[in-house]
Design brief:
The chain contains twelve helices and 27 strands. By secondary structure, the protein is α/β, with parallel strands linked by helices. Among the domains are: 109 residues, Glutamyl-tRNA Synthetase, domain 3 (Alpha-Beta Complex); 142 residues, Ribosomal Protein L25, Chain P, CATH 2.40.240. The strands form seven sheets. It has a seven-stranded mixed beta sheet, with no helix packed on it. A seven-stranded mixed beta sheet has the order 21-18-19-20-14-17-22, with no helix packed on it.
Length: 491
RNA sequence: GCUGGUAUAGUGUAGUGGCCCAUCAUGAAGGACUCUCAUUCCUUCGACCCGGGUUCAAAUCCCGGUACCAGCACCA
């Protein structure tokens, strides 16, 4: 009976990792620091970290910064990524590894590859080699002697070749079924004179640089990585690297893949494109609320907890998926509501004078479900109040928590304090308790500025409040707020 | 073209031969509560890509389609 119920129960959280035992799991996540972290990176961080938690393992953050031209690293990104990862996972990475600091290790292994004859220096052009790959024929360089390879390698290191002229390949088999695996390139040359590495301590020091598949494979072994969780676009990487591991006599880590994720509301944002757009001034910075970056999300009030719940819920299936932001927002609402002080914000305010008998002050709850959060005191002596112009299509309104009123030109006549009928309830604000403010809203990649009157408060910058009848918003400064969850575009 | 991968409600997800006329979340619609278009609670809607086969029994195994995605870069 009991067993039946257990097997029927829905699996919670992530599935078990194969071949994993507590205390012996080493995981890593390796972004390219060519910009700060994006929404998609959060998946790698969250999933890897949850597994670290489950198995009491080690989590490594690694910077794969081995390309200085196509995807040049951004110097500021290194620190920012560590900081963002810490924010997201609630914990600093156990280890931070920077590939560009580990070049000697990669050289050492390249050397060994040539010495032991499972790698060679190839002087074919990219096009020429492509022919060999398609035709399943060996290129002439493949049969060079070990001594020739060693000599060529020395010349490479000395800088006797130009980028594009020579490359180090892993000897696999040119007749392999999968063309992607045939004698794949492991290291190449980069012109670091005209494209220096942005880290000053690296700069133009090296001309020979490892490619991802080689660098990553060697580094995973050096760091003792046991499980790799990566996108399925890297499935062939696994196969290439497994071939290399066989040559070295190593055992390849267990791998798990996830599919592609698209967000309905965001098209294809690439880090390189965002970087360009920011430089061109189309966005204010990496934390612009319109951008799908971690910084952008954080700075408009999306909590790390919501991001974590979101990604754990999606799990690690290999399906390519497309998710609406509404799902993330629903997680964020859960994370934020109980602690969000309520505030009144009147957009496009119209002034009215309160006439008739009424109390001179009013006390409102900071949070309707939590008395402990205190009260808000409003002063009604002056009598000037703000109403939202959109609410004025009715002349009889109920001012929330206060009174039934009848509107005429400029007066709001108090008809009674208790609710007497089903007239609409609207939010409002005494002028004396309010100040001018702007509410930012992202919509269709635009930034809309709603001007209005905001209830005075002393919540610090970064507080997520709830603007009654509008939505959750984060305090940016004394007169600016940003809406956390923009309205859905497809109702 | 070659190679590999994936297909469960609108969107995600659970499910590894009988507990499944299929789980949970989200969404939509309705309702309760509430002096917010919030929160909370309740109800309803809605799916196993198609066609064969194996089996007493298939979402689950096999075969064949179809669709979508990825790799075949001196990017990561």
């Amino acid at each position: 009976m009991l067993e039946k119920r257990e097997t029927k129960a829905r699996r919670e959280g992530l599935p078990e990792l194969t071949n994993a035992s507590k205390g012996e799991v080493v995981l890593r996540f390796a972004p390219n620091p060519n910009g700060p972290l994006s929404f998609g990176h959060a998946r790698g961080l969250v999933i890897n970290n949850r597994y670290r938690e489950m198995y009491d393992g080690v989590f490594i953050l690694r910077f794969d910064d081995t390309d200085t031209k196509v995807k040049p690293p951004l110097l500021e990104a290194y620190d920012q990524i560590v900081e963002e990862a810490t924010w997201l996972t609630g914990r600093a990475p156990d280890r931070v590894v920077v590939a560009s600091d580990r070049m000697e290790h990669y050289y050492e292994h390249a050397q060994r590859m040539l010495d032991e004859g499972f790698g060679y220096v190839c002087r074919c052009s990219a096009d020429a080699f492509k022919e060999h790959r398609i035709g399943q024929t060996n290129c002439p360089c493949r049969s060079q002697s070990i001594a020739d390879n060693q000599a060529l390698w020395k010349s490479m290191l000395k800088g006797s070749f130009k980028p594009g002229e020579v490359v180090v390949r892993v000897k696999t088999d040119m007749t392999l079924k999968n063309p992607a695996l045939r004698d794949w390139p492991a290291l190449r040359l980069q012109d670091t004179k005209s494209h220096p590495h942005p880290r000053p301590e690296i700069g133009s020091t090296y001309v020979v640089w490892p490619l991802l598949d080689f660098q990553s494979a060697v580094e995973d072994h050096l760091q003792g990585v046991t499980h790799i969780i990566r996108g399925k676009d890297l499935m062939d990487s696994t196969r290439k690297q497994t071939l290399l591991y066989e040559h070295f006599g190593w055992t390849y880590p267990e791998t798990v893949y996830w599919g592609r994720v698209k967000v309905h509301e965001w098209g294809g944002f690439s880090t390189s494109q965002m970087r360009k757009d920011i430089e061109d001034g189309r966005y204010d910075g990496w934390n612009d609320p319109r951008l799908p970056t971690l910084a952008g999300l954080r700075d408009r009030g999306i909590k790390a907890e919501a991001l974590r719940d979101f990604w754990i819920e999606l799990g690690v299936t290999q399906k390519d998926i497309s998710v609406p932001l509404a799902t993330l927002y629903s997680h964020n609402t859960k994370a934020v509501d109980a602690g969000a002080p309520r505030l009144s914000f009147v957009r496009e305010p119209i002034a009215f004078s309160l006439v008739g008998e009424h109390p001179s002050s009013l006390e409102l709850a900071v949070h309707p479900n939590d008395d402990a959060m205190g009260i808000r005191a409003w002063n009604l002596k002056e009598g000037k109040v703000w109403l939202e112009s959109e609410d004025l299509d009715h002349m009889d309104l109920r001012l929330k928590e206060f009174a039934d009123v009848a509107l005429n030109d400029t007066n709001a006549e108090v008809q009674g304090l208790s609710r007497s009928d089903q007239r609409p309830i609207v939010h409002w604000l005494p002028a004396i308790n309010s100040q001018e403010a702007v509410l930012l809203e992202t919509k269709n990649n635009e930034l809309i500025r709603h001007r209005g009157q905001l209830e005075q408060h002393n919540h610090p910058t970064g507080t997520v409040v709830q603007l009654e009848r509008i939505g959750y918003a984060m305090v940016l400064d004394s007169e600016t707020l940003v809406l956390c969850h923009e309205e859905s575009e497809t109702p």
